[in-house]
Backbone:
């Protein structure tokens, strides 16, 4: 079965592509990802297909294989995101242990994790680019698609919010200072 040529309506062509391949792409992703993220990854693949509709092969089987490649890349991107978030949680936990008393260390980690999860995702991203990725404001701005000045403003606001969320009296000064002080970028 062939898909409509690119001269046809983009919406009609995409609709036919979706009808012809969605179930197969979803099964492809489900075999590689958990059920929690399979539909999101499959939809991301079709979003890419919509954006690159001119690149989608006309033949249904070829389009299906092309979408498998796109879905695989979306899945890998999703897995990298999960790995980064997990690594970030581990780094937060390991970098907050500055005390010899295990109970104090646990309390520090819990306070920091609680404060971290109260931040919006964009605030977490801005802080992680500065603290854990150690990127300059120019490079971090490029990652986020904004100017370095806009990045510095967002970083300043995210640090201020984290400062507000943390009860610095419960943290050793070195831990709280490391997390929220502005370093030269």
Residues:
């Amino acid at each position: 079965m062939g898909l409509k040529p690119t001269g046809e309506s983009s919406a009609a062509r995409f609709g036919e592509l979706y009808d012809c391949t969605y179930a197969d792409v979803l099964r492809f992703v489900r075999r590689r990802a958990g059920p929690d993220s399979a539909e999101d990854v499959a939809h991301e693949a079709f979003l890419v297909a919509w954006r690159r509709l001119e690149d989608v092969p006309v033949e249904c089987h070829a389009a299906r294989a092309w979408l498998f490649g796109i879905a695989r890349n979306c899945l890998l991107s999703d897995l990298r995101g999960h790995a980064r978030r997990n690594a970030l949680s581990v780094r937060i936990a390991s970098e907050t242990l500055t005390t010899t008393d295990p109970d104090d260390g646990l309390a520090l980690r819990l306070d920091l994790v609680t404060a971290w999860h109260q931040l919006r995702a964009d605030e977490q991203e801005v802080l992680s680019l500065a603290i854990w990725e150690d990127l300059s404001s120019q490079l971090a701005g490029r990652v986020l698609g904004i100017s370095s000045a806009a990045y510095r403003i967002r970083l300043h606001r995210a640090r201020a919010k984290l400062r507000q969320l943390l009860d610095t009296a419960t943290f050793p000064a070195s831990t709280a200072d490391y997390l929220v002080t502005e370093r030269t970028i």
Observations:
- Residues 171-176 have pLDDT under 50 and may be disordered.
